[in-house]
Every structure is written in C-alpha cells, then in structure tokens.
Design a protein that fits this description.
228 residues, binds fe (ii) ion
C-alpha cells in the first residue's frame, strides 16, 4: 500500500485536479482561428484530426494515472504503471516526430513553441525514467508520480488550449488528418503488441531503450515505414 494514496480526501483532490484540465481556450488567438481549431478537432466523415488523436491520448494518460492513485492493490498499480509509462513514452516521441515539426513549419512562433515543448518533454521524460524503475511499494513511488503528472498536466493543457488550436487554424483542410495518421504510425513503438505495419520485432524492447535512443535514430526508423 502506498502511504501517499491512503488518504481518501487527498486521493479525491488529486483526481479532480487531474481532470480539471480542459477549460476554455486562452485569448491571443483570432476568433475564427479558434473556431476552426475546435471544428477541426471533431471533423465530419469519421476521420480524426491531429487534435483529436492527441486529446484521446491525453485522456487515456489521465485515466491510467487515476487508476494508479485510486487503488491500493500493488498488482493493479504495477499494471497501470507499465501502461502509463509506455503510453507516455510513445506519445512524447510521436509529438516530437510529428507535431513539433508541424508547429515549426506552419506557425510564426512555432520554433519557440517547439523548443519550449521539447524542454518540457525532457523534464517529464527524466521523471518518467525514474518512475518506471520504482515499484508500487517504494516510498518514492507516489511522490514521483505526482510530480511527473503535475508537469504533464500543465503541458497537456497548453497543447490542447493554445498550441493545437493555433496549428489547426494555420493548416490547410485535410492536413490535420494527415498529421493524425503520421502520429498514429508512431504507435508502432510498442513492447509486446505488434503493429500490423511494423516489422516482426518491435524497434524497441524496453521503454528505457525508446526514451534514451537519439531522436535522429528514431526518426530514421520512423521514415522507413509505409506512409499510408
Ligand atoms: Fe501531448
């Protein structure tokens, strides 16, 4: 049992703060740009926008986090810890390979935005690297997860409320869906489940291998996969 999670009031507070991430978009974006961003996130025809797939990942990460903190069963915590670590590692790599280059290409302030996001990712990845080596019974398990998620929550909020809204407003019709498909292809970085288009063996066997691989190497590997 994790001492930090025994207190029900604390647990409830943590859970509600984790979920309070989707408010209204901040000012600073033209109204039409903002509206276009919202529409693009849920476009017609069933195809997902890049905002849609990223938000989906964010909600999954919140769900895994909540499952870890709302149980005292170490086995269940370990399962969701593994899922959380893998999903976050893959999500981060996907954003670095697909989304941040799009910020740089399409937004006037995209370079600063991408630099800031990469720095934030680095901090989250360092904490994630530490967290993945901890067991549910370890004294630092709870505090490390809480610190990690606090940073992650702020990062997700900025992406959803500002950066992706700006990107959706700046790109041509149909490009968001292309970015979404590219982003989804980064899901081939899995430890055990095989992606239909991935090689027989996953490119990375461990999350540490994925996170510590130079991004150039990951990018080279990624570009060798079929495009559609
Ligand atoms: Fe994200």
């Amino acid at each position: 049992m994790i001492a930090g999670f025994r207190n029900t009031a604390l647990r409830r507070a943590l859970t509600s703060s984790a979920l309070a991430s989707c408010g209204t978009a901040k000012t600073g974006l033209a109204k039409s740009q903002f509206l276009r961003g919202i529409v693009s996130a849920t476009n017609a025809g069933g195809t997902q926008s890049v905002t849609g797939v990223i938000k989906h990942d964010h909600r999954e990460l919140e769900d895994y986090y909540n499952r870890i903190i709302s149980t005292n069963d170490p086995d269940e915590q370990a399962r969701y810890q593994n899922l959380f670590v893998w999903e976050l590692a893959r999500h981060s790599i996907g954003e670095e390979l697909v989304v941040y280059p799009a910020f740089e290409k399409f937004l006037p302030s995209g370079e600063q935005m991408a630099t800031k996001d990469r720095k934030e990712h680095q901090l989250v990845k360092e904490k994630l690297y530490e967290f993945q080596n901890l067991k549910p019974g370890d004294a630092r398990f709870a505090t490390t997860l809480l610190a990690l998620f606090k940073d992650l929550k702020q990062h997700m909020k900025e992406e959803e409320e500002e950066e992706l809204v700006a990107l959706e407003g700046a790109i041509e019709d149909g490009h968001s869906e292309k970015l979404a498909r590219s982003f989804e292809r980064t899901k081939m970085f899995v430890p055990t489940r095989s992606h239909p288009r991935a090689p027989d063996k996953p490119p990375f066997e461990t999350v540490a291998g994925l996170m510590t691989a130079p991004l150039d190497k990951v990018r080279d590997m990624f570009t060798k996969f079929p495009i559609d």
